[in-house]
Design goal:
The protein has 172 residues and is of the alpha+beta class. It has five helices and seven strands.
Length: 172
């Protein structure tokens, strides 16, 4: 049975392991081997999400099945040392909250992990007054996000790796 909780700093080594597995294994059908390697330059753990209390761990019987979260900060994606960091707090009245750093352990794909994280992110962002969400999707993640109601806004590249900026309104 899947359960959720907020991540703590003690989780960081295990989260980094899950992220590396997900990057290396789940993108293989969508990217070249060189692009998978390049993904590590900007994908991974942003410990600010843990410190902010907006990063979730999905547990399956004592094993981390996945992780992901959202942010009230302007950083669109990336890890602790990404060049795109922007810790400015977003205005919930005019800006979308950011869904960030979603990863599923390869042994747990297609079991509801991603949808569970999305539900937790949506509920938490709405509780803080946000009416929309935005994320930067990998090609591997885009089908899940579309199934969760996100629509494509723009295509971009980072280090030769394609990404899709996507948005979702939380209020109809």
């Amino acid at each position: 049975m899947l359960t959720s909780r907020l991540a703590t700093p003690d989780d960081e080594p295990a989260l980094r392991h899950v992220m590396a597995l997900a990057i290396d294994q789940l993108q293989q059908s969508f990217l070249t081997p060189e692009q998978v390697v390049a993904s590590h330059a900007f994908m991974g753990l942003d410990s600010r999400l843990i410190a902010d209390g907006t990063y979730f761990v999905i547990d399956d019987g004592g094993t981390i099945a996945g992780c992901g979260g959202w942010s009230r900060r302007a950083t669109p994606y990336g890890h602790d040392s990404s060049a795109t960091r922007d810790d400015r707090l977003l205005d919930p009245a005019t800006e979308p909250a950011k869904v960030r750093a979603m990863y599923t352990h390869p042994a747990h794909v297609r079991r509801g992990v991603g949808r569970m994280i999305m539900m937790l992110c949506e509920e938490a962002a709405q509780a803080e007054g946000f009416s929309s969400l935005e994320l930067s999707a990998t090609l591997a993640g885009a089908p899940l996000y579309r199934a969760c109601g996100f629509h494509d806004v723009a295509r971009l590249m980072d280090g030769g790796v394609p990404l899709i900026r996507m948005q979702k309104n939380l209020i109809s």
